[in-house]
Specification:
This protein is 36% helix and 19% strand. It is of the alpha+beta class. Among the domains are: 97 residues, no CATH class; 87 residues, no CATH class.
Amino acid sequence: MSLIGYVRQVRPIQESHVNHLDKIQNLYSLYEGSSLNRKELIKPAGKGPNTGVPRIEIFANKISKGEEHMLDDGTTIVIKQITMDGKTYASKDMKSMVTDFEDATKISITDPATAWGDIAKTPEYGGEGGGTKISTSTQELMTATIVLLGKKYNSKKITVEDAAEIIKAAEGKWDAVEGSKGKEKLLKQFANNWYDLATAVSSANAILDMVPNPTKVYWTGQSWHDDIKIFNPDIVGVKDYNSSDIVVSDGKKFWGLSLKKKESRDSTDPTLINKPISGSKSFLKSLISDEGMSQAELDSIENKKNEFFTNIIASYLIAPENKRTTYKNLKTMRSAVAVVKKLDDKKRKEEIGRIPNKFVNTQLTTEANLFWKEVDKVLKSHAEEFMVSFIKLVFRYELKDHLEDLIAQGKTFEFYLLTGIGKRVGDEIGIEPADVKDLPSTVQALSRIFRNPSALNLGDTPGRKLPWEVDLNAVGTKKPPAKLFYTIFYGKAPLLNLEIRYKGSKTVEPQFQCTATPVFKTLMKVKK
């Protein structure tokens, strides 16, 4: 049954004939002028559902699953074979392709034979539409407007005609969202935005299960409205400790939703946090105390970072491929380091920005990476304190105390982590039930862990090694990673997987990213 029939049951609509050519042109107008190519595959997705994930990994994952790729003319193809430097890779060879990609000089799509310029850089790759980047806030606002429609869309697949109807109806609720004023440019990103629509519908369905009769929805992207700011406590060093992206009310109580999104239930979970490990906003600053991490240790991380990048800039200035006349007289590392040390912050960032990511990533994997080693040493010196503080921040553990005080005053607020799940599938929008985690269940699980914090330990992620732990002489050894992997264990049970990585530009600070393990997800479902 077409969703038009379903929508007719919950909301009358006026049907009209849609010209197929017009439909296709409108459907893909969002992606025109934005193609995928080898240069783009080198970079991570800067926006969208896969923010921070290398595009080559997204590309390979889609091929291995036999998923469609969108072309700029509105048609789709299933890529079956890639050829790199004369070697072919079928869908079963995608892991090898990702490994070999970094050193490849020529890559082409050979089955079906397709020019790179024809492949659309869709939002899953952090794509742009009409020259405008798709904001992460767009999906939040789309969810808010669909909630205000007050109707669930329970079909697993929504046709493009029905999707257009839903978007049109959602646009009509824009002005009713508290906090949306002044962001009308994001409303323009609703049109034909099937990727955000899929996860927004999934999220809205879950929210309407909690709040069947919503009367108000607040978007917190610009500020917290006077009606709800009481629920966002001041925590030193943390802006917006209540991480709700939208807040929904039925006139009696409030529900806060921290929104995430992913394409399918089997897809990698989105990171639960993005926090810098160094710089003025470093998460580690919160650990400084008389008995905890010292300012001197935090300074040592900064110093090693600066020393590391000084050496990288110097190495690149004297590299054979770098023939800039400004530094043509530099012949040795010693002379290059002396020059780099005299650069001001602006010039230093400019020089880092000129260095190819591949060059920097190679340095991140070597023994010379003093920065990563210092981070590792400091974290492990304060492992228990770091793990407890990190877990509490990720899951907003201390929010419970503030909310309990408000409940005693008759002000009720419930907090949820919610991941909308959905994606475009051919000419339809596929929807899956959202993943919902409530604060009480999370706090209950964490409270059991915090009864015995000494059982927490910070170890290597199973199957992963730190860069300097990789034996380069071992048979079949892959290249060392350009990032750090850790897992927080409770006894022998893995709870959270952590990565410390750069997200694209090396001129900004590297970040902590975190996902829950299946063990931890199960733990949160257990009621005691």
